[in-house]
Amino acid sequence: MIILNYLLVCLIFGTTFLAIKIGVDVSAPPFLSAGIRFFIAGVLLFGWMVWRKKARLSLLLHKDMLLTGIGLTFGTFAALYWGEQYVDSGVAAVLSATGPMMILVLQMIMLRQKPAGRSLLGCLVGLFGIFLIIWPSMTLSASLGLLIGSIVIIAGEVFYSWGAVYSKRVTQRFPEVSPIALNAAQMIYGGLLLLLLSACTEPWHFQSLLSAQALGSLLYLIIIGSMIGHSLFYWLVAKTGPVFASTWLYVSPLVAIVIGVLLYGESVTWLTGIGAVTVIAGTVLVNWDSLQQLFRKPQREEAALQEAHSR
Questions:
Q1: Taking the alpha carbons of 193, 199, 201, 207 in that order, is the dihedral positive or negative?
Q2: Is 79:156 a contact under the CB 8 Å cutoff?
Q3: By its UniProt entry, which InterPro entries does this protein fall under (predicted)?
Q4: Which of 190, 192, 219, 278 could bridge across to 129 with cysteines, CB 3.0–4.6 Å?
Q5: What's the confidence (pLDDT) of residue 67?
Q6: What does the pLDDT read at residue 6?
Q7: What is the DSSP string of 240-270?
Q8: Around Cβ 94, how many Cβ atoms within 10 Å?
Q9: How far apart are alpha carbons 143 and 86 in whole angstroms?
Q10: Which pLDDT score, from 0 to 100, does residue 241 have?
Q11: Among candidates 26, 1, 6, 15, which has minimal Cα distance to 226?
Q12: Among candidates 288, 266, 284, which has minimal Cα distance to 92?
């Protein structure tokens, strides 16, 4: 069951980038689409948790939900949705995989943590991979949109890294609250902020959301991407721990690239492919110590079991 749900998480998160791309390509306002997605998904999930008596409405009154929503949803997805107007879904997925590197840098700055040399090497490797991906746009003026979109998506990962670091404190402050309820609450606030940003910057032509592609994209992202995908992710965290569950970051970008090529006709140059592999390799290096602990844990449990049987 764990492996099946893990594969579903990788597949779902890998396909959400293409779903976003399809929506923005048919002129659905990016901030409006993102706002509707997260607000509706957050309200439905939070309402479900309240109905099951695993959350209280008073949770929404805590400023921590707002601050987490600014980082994990508002800043991250405002940048991603806007950037995917100019960046292929596969490339957007790879750039989004730089989140762990941003978290490492933020922990160095905010928490004064000294990272391992291997983690710093991973950041440099990932930075080189990003350079390979955006290099064509630095040499061809026609690809200026790719350069700007890539920079915006990476900037969004700064919001994500801050939100991820802050959310760890939030889960410690609310240990009795389900992580699904905490995630739903921050999605509500993030969605509202995205709608506010859209109201200030985009014309609200709702007919652009009623095409088959835009509506299908929105429904898929609300139900499959946000509600089912995130619930499965938090189920994995509860069953296995955050390290294993977060390894979707190494799989989903490759899924996104393949699906984008096969289903949407996106092109991948050899330079982009090398850059994608390099970014993922850098992400693995950044998380190497945590991954080692993940693989050592079953070995320790097996050794303890064998020792118990020998007594």
A1: positive
A2: yes
A3: AA-Vitamin_Transporters, EamA_dom, EmrE-like
A4: 278
A5: 95
A6: 86
A7: H-HHHHTTHHHHHHHHHHHHHHHHH-----H
A8: 32
A9: 9
A10: 64
A11: 15
A12: 266
- 258 contacts 15 by C-beta, under 8 angstroms: no
Say how many Å lie between the first and final Cα of the chain, rounded: 32
Instruction: Classify residue 223 by burial, with Cβ atoms within 10 Å: 0-12, 13-18, 19+.
Output: middle
H-state helical runs in the chain = 2-25, 30-51, 63-69, 76-83, 89-96, 99-110, 117-139, 144-173, 179-201, 212-219, 229-240, 242-245, 248-264, 270-286, 288-310
The whole-number pLDDT of residue 309 equals 40
- 3-state SS, 191-231, equals HHHHHHHHHHHCCCCHHHHCCHHHHHHHHHHHHHHHHHHHH
SS3 of residue 168 by DSSP: helix
Which segments of the chain have a pLDDT < 50? 301-311
Q: How far apart are CA 143 and CA 136, in angstroms?
A: 7
- Whole-number pLDDT of residue 139: 60
Comparing CA positions, the residue from 25, 60, 30 lying closest to residue 43 is: 60
DSSP class of residue 59 equals: G
pLDDT in tens, 50-87: 999 989 999 999 999 999 999 999 999 999 999 999 99
Place of tokens 């080189």: 128
Q: Against a cut of 0.90, is the pTM above it?
A: no
CB 53 within 8 A of CB 234: no
CA–CA gap between residue 160 and residue 166 (Å, rounded): 10
Are residues 149 and 88 in contact, defined by beta-carbon separation less than 8 angstroms? no
Residue matched to tokens 């004064």? 112
Q: Is 89 exposed, middle or buried (0-12, 13-18, 19+ CB in 10 A)?
A: buried
Alpha-carbon distance of 137 to 141, in angstroms, equals 7
d(C-alpha 50, C-alpha 44), whole Å:
10
**CA nearest neighbour of 256 among 73, 284, 264:** 264
What are the tokens at 132?
A: 């390979």
